[in-house]
Amino acid sequence: MGRETILISLLASTMLTTAALAASREDNRAEPVVGEEQAVLTDAPNAPPAITRKTATKVVVHLEVKEVEGRLADGVRYTFWTFGGHVPGKFIRVREGDLVEMHLDNHPDNKMPHNIDLHAVNGQGGGAAASLTAPGHSSVFSFKATNPGLFVYHCATAPVAMHVANGMYGLILVEPKEGLPHADREYYVMQGDFYTKGANGEQGLQPFSMEKAIQEKPDYVVFNGSVGAMTGDKAITGNVGETVRLFIGDGGPNLTSSFHVIGQIFDSVYAEGNMSTPTKNVQTTMVPAGGSAIADFKLTVPGTFILVDHSLTRAFNKGALGMFKSVGPEDKLVYSGKTEDQVYLPEGAGVRVADAPAAVAPVAQNKAERIKAGEAVFANNCSACHQPNGAGVPDAFPPLAKSDYLKNDKAKIVQTVTGGLSGKLKVNGKAFDGVMPAWDLPDEDIANVLTYVYNSWGNGGGEVTPADVKAHRAVRKAAAE
Amino acid sequence: MARRAAILATFLAVFPSALAPACAAPAGMAPVPAGAFTPFFKMIPAKGQRGAEPRPIALKAFRLDRFPVTSAQFAAFLATNPQWRREAAPRLFVDPNYLRRWREGAPAAGEALAPVTNVSWFAAQAFCEARGGRLPTTDEWEYALADAGRGRDQVTRISLDWFARPNGARLGEVGQGAANGYGLSDMVGLVWEWTEDFSATGSGAEQRNTSSKDDAAFCGGGAAGVRDPADYPALMRYALRASLKARYTQDNLGFRCAGDE
């Protein structure tokens, strides 16, 4: 075979590949449309049922745009702009080759004009140009679903960043003709960043902050429209042995998600929502703003698995945290749980302690000094969980600020620190079920940190002295013997 | 003449209830001095040219209502122009939500001093003409809002607060907030307002109009073609105008009238 022949055959194969791809889009364009149906639309975390049709059809979608006041976090209200009344917008599911007729209905109560840009559309503005709709009006356009995939849709009315920041995004799945592999449960999870006039946690109705949005400094990063939308009672669930699929979207407007489920490996990820090449065995998948991913995993053990944006201060401090509860029998081979807890004595530890000069801890002389010293103890030992402002983390770590738990008697509070605390607990009306370890700190430190807590964040004041802690330990010891 | 109007206007500012239907129409207007206005939208450069930055254009002095037109004022207009009543107005000029909460030519109870809303451009224009005035052009309206650069942060803040306020509540009365430097109240924060050329974005004899109204109203087109992409409330106003047709009406859309000096 001469060089020219190789070149020609290379060229030919390239052309063949291109032709095959182009034909696919062309095939879907040409596929006859049989009949008509109304789209089944769902709110997160639910997804509509899989499509079993063997033919393309006309799917009629009605999306009602509503500007509604709702909960962004506990005590924090926000005026969301929504496709269908909730953030994220309704999940739309169609089949490759379908003719989709979009009706965008702008509720008469609304103040704003809105439109829709579906990333599943080949056409100017993804439909935005055709769907700019004044309040009290309705627009219609249609498109052929020529490309399979999981696509974001969003409002694209200027200023688009504000419309999206207020919650105007959702997902549309264009399911491949052959369908997706079977999954026992499918869920819809969409991340978004929110920018409020007040800082994170500031109560009341919070207007949008244009400055923070432009600086890309959100106060909240959340799954499904609010802090805690998928935690506690609202966790998504499954049984051991089932296959779970997450349709994951990121509305942004600004942040890319490092999407991760703590304690699960994704068996397959359809990166960026593409349907042709799932990646196997993925820990964390990147979901771009205005993009998507599909993650499949099989539940092999029971437990609560935490959904996070692994850019962790977003999960820890801004709300990007959800829960998946798996129920069923343990498999100790897959995961044993804790099997031992022993005292660890490194070799030569005693020698080093003996060599070290005795540490001289400063001793607080009065309550003011105690509070000051306690602040440092708090920062080093407590603030990671209870937060520097004492607010705690919803569903995970109880608040110390204005905490009704602190109204218990002093002995119980000292015991909480020296002995730890675990199991179900109610603080300020909110339920918790976690573990606080026992703190092996000097009496002086415990006295100082508790005095600091008693005298901070709207708590009732008071003082704990090292003598109190010492007496408490003596009582406990006597009781134990 | 100007002085007399100013005195009357001051009186009206102190006694907003004097805005009742009986009051003479042009008396509620404030003079807005001539000046330069830089359009919000950039121009499309001619082939082979660069520099799409909008150039300032000269605006003549004009007069503008100090407050949005109230329901009481509109009721007075309907009394003498019954062809614009809800039952009578031709569908060609109003959509089905025209004056949707009015009954028998009267506004909903307690809303006499709130801005009239659910009025079409045609109805607004007819109202202003009946008073010997007209609707302001978009450039005039935006120039009046810009207030010679005074209080821009204020305008942004009031706008964003208004966007966040839950819908469906009764509209407030006009004149609750402070007037701007020209003596104009409630330009933002109460209702949107019709302009004479709402459907053209920044048109003018001197300038080649940029983008079609559609381009102006969505996504990339919205940000690439404007003087200040960080002015979200301005983008909102232009997008709202671009979404309208002259017969449309809206719960949050009112108007005020202008006149020539």
Mean pLDDT of chain B: 81
Per CATH, the superfamily of the largest domain in chain A is: Cupredoxins -  blue copper proteins
Largest interface (C-beta under 8 Å): A-B, 37 and 40 residues
> How does the overall form of chain B come out from the CA principal axes?
globular
Largest sheet of chain B, order of strands side by side? 1-4-7
Radius of gyration of chain A in whole Å, from Cα?
28 Å
Task: Describe, in short, the structure shown.
Chain A is built from 11 helices and 23 strands. Chain A is α/β, with parallel strands linked by helices.
Structure description:
The complex is a heterodimer of chains A (481) and B (261). Chain A has 11 helices and 23 strands. Chain A is an alpha/beta fold and 481 residues long. Chain A has 3 domains: 143 residues, Cupredoxins -  blue copper proteins (Immunoglobulin-like); 143 residues, Sandwich (Immunoglobulin-like), CATH 2.60.40; 119 residues, Cytochrome Bc1 Complex, Chain D, domain 2. In chain A, the strands form 5 sheets. In chain A, strands 1, 2, 3, 5, 7 and 11 form a 6-stranded mixed sheet that branches. In chain A, strands 12-10-14-19-16-17 form a 6-stranded mixed sheet. Chain A has a 5-stranded mixed sheet with strand order 13-21-20-15-18. The N and C termini of chain A lie far apart (93 Å). By secondary structure, chain B is α+β, with helices and mostly antiparallel strands. Chain B has a single domain, classed as Alpha-Beta Complex (paralog of FGE (formylglycine-generating enzyme)). In chain B, the strands form 3 sheets. Chain B has a 3-stranded antiparallel sheet. In chain B, strands 2-3 form a two-stranded antiparallel ribbon. At the A-B interface, β2 and α3 of A face α5, α6, α7 and α8 of B.
